[in-house]
Design a protein that fits this description.
Pfam families: fn3_6 (PF17766), Inhibitor_I9 (PF05922), Peptidase_S8 (PF00082). With 757 residues, this protein is an alpha/beta fold. It has 18 helices and 37 strands. Strands 17, 18, 19, 20, 21, 22, 23 and 24 form an eight-stranded mixed β-sheet that branches. A seven-stranded parallel β-sheet has the order 7-10-6-13-15-16-26, with helices on both faces. A five-stranded mixed β-sheet has the order 30-37-36-32-34, with no helix packed on it. The protein is globular, with a radius of gyration of 26 Å.
Length: 757
Amino acid sequence: EADFIGGPGQGGGAPDPARVEEPPVVVPFVPKSPVYIIYLGATKHDDPKLVAQSHLEILKSVLGSEEAAKSSMIYNYQYGFSGFAAKLKPAEAQKLKNHPEVITLVINRKLVMQTTRTWDYLGLFSTPASSKGLLQGSNMGSGAIIGVIDSGIWSESGVFDDNGYGPTPKQWKGQCVSGDQFKAEDCNKKLIGAKYYMDGLNADLATSINSSTEHISPRDHNGHGTQVSSTVAGSFLSNLTFPGLSAGSIMRGAAPKAHIAMYKACWDVQGGMCSVADVWKAFDEAINDGVDVLSVSIGGLSKVRSLDVEVDIAIPALHAVNKGITVVYPAGNGGPRGTTVINISPWIITVAATTLDRSLSAFITLDNNQTFMGQSMYTGPELGFTDVMFSEDQSSVATVKGKVVMYFEKEKPMPGPEILQRNGAVGVIYVRTPSSRLECPANFPCIYIDIDIGSKIYFHMETTSSPKVKISPFKAVIGESVASTVGGSSSRGPSSFSPAILKPDIAAPGLNLLTPRIPTDEDTSEFAYSGTSMATPVIAGIVALLKISHPTWSPAAIKSAIVTTARSTDPYGEPLTAEGTTPKIADAFDYGGGLVDMEKATNPGLVYDMDMNDYVHYLCSAALYTDKRVSALTGNVTTKCPSSSSSILDINVPSITIPDLKGNVKVITRTVTNVGPVDSVYKPVIKAPLGFDVKVSPEELVFNKGTSKAAFTVSVSSGSYKVNTGFFFGSLTWSDGLHNVTIPVSVRTSFIDNFYL
């Protein structure tokens, strides 16, 4: 979910400042006729009106009349794929589910948003040989159209200036829709499309969204969509000033000359909410409008990895990919626990979030002049020596007036800075395990320190009669001395639904990025949203650059290029770490292929390409799709599931993940396509997971004018292991001396089936 800066209590009412009340139990609203989504597969007609009429006939067959069918209908999905959303009683939905043309029927689930220096940081990977670089080589993404499904956009922001832009691409069929505080004229050559969708969410809310709490238009109300849009394709902004950062900084998006199309399907209700029905409609129209890339920083709420959560809501993305549109999703913000990754379908790119080489550091000075460094976004002024007190929980908020309060992270919740500020505290020190997640406002002395430093300060407080501390404003520390890490909030693999498909795919900076805010009265920080929400548009923007540089590459080829050229180190050569209760060296379940290297991705040498056959294989293996369902999905009656002997392990993803290796040898097949020099010879370099035996055949891959594809097998055995293990990690690299095409290899033994390790 989006990481709202400000911590617990932000945006609430005005409770009694002397106490913290337990939140009331809220009974979820359940409509009498909830919204259901009915998926029918590929469109059977080129005319959208005929598609919509066929939907009405199906609904009429269940509800009994055309009038009832029209009253029930919420959306027709009639462009990119066929289906509809309708208000139905559960018994009606069950009857419709059994209709012979219906492939899938799902309830309209709620979704949430998963939520500068970035490009300097990623540019550190560049070498003199790549001086032109992907950015210049693709003309900064000029001509690419990036669709963003999110919370809207604040079109007046300078990052959406269209100065110097050429005409709108001829492929574009979208439009700008007027509404509350948004006119069609608010679009320009940069922001070429803006639409909004709310009928699906409104139908399932007790009180409909209205203009007193939201903009009933493409205009952004909470800032999330504006930040995502600026990150993916914001224009250059020069001479920025921000406390703690160097003057004259430049802000830009990944593809600063690309065009943006906003599809507002998320709304500023209940902390930020979207519905599957609205998101599907956004996909449907985006496919028809002519976007090249879709950046979708949203995901499910459910902790149960059911079929409709993991696969069915990703079906529109499959139709987009089948039409050449790359779709980028976040891995989610459920980390650092394992098996929390969301958006796990192999046709999408799933993104983890890392930090930059930038620390926002402030100093705590004790009254004995000892100084300690912590993390903060406090912009000043300096808080002079002030009484400091220790508290274990929220019970002492009535005694904090005029003091700095220190809390150690425990099971009991700690009061947020807003609550403390309302009760008269002048500062707060939070002691916790190391984390890049900052939830402090910029206007209140609030600082995070680790347990080691916290223990030293606590010892001083215990041995001093009237301890005092001083807190300075933050300063940005940038460079090699600041470790890059996968954020603790970034969701981790493996996928509990289909562990043989590695997720996440890739990692990118997404934590505490400096992006523009929308003008509201509640601004407290420039770093409003953080997490995989913000890492997603970083990758989507790089995808747009790659599409311009390599217009014939498929979405799978682009994904492979990004994954196989990624780094397991930061730009300074230091190993990436992963935040958690105990920080560790990061592995494939933290970051997929690694940290994106945008320059190497433009020249990967080989790619692991995929097409609809691979995706059908996945649906049949992991999601129990039948021949009938895949035929309807593809619009081709001859499309069938592969034979029962086919293994999900052989889907041509740029990774190898074996979750159930027994004593026998697993043989996995992959195929690579040469996109480098025509005459090339590649040899394998194997880093076997600890204790496992890995062999590759053949021992070299030879490409020439007549051979652009080559298949190979990887044989993996359990070595000396005789018991169930956890996962071990290694890699397989194909190298021609110039290109190193690397995929992660993850293996776990399973000698006893369904055994809790």
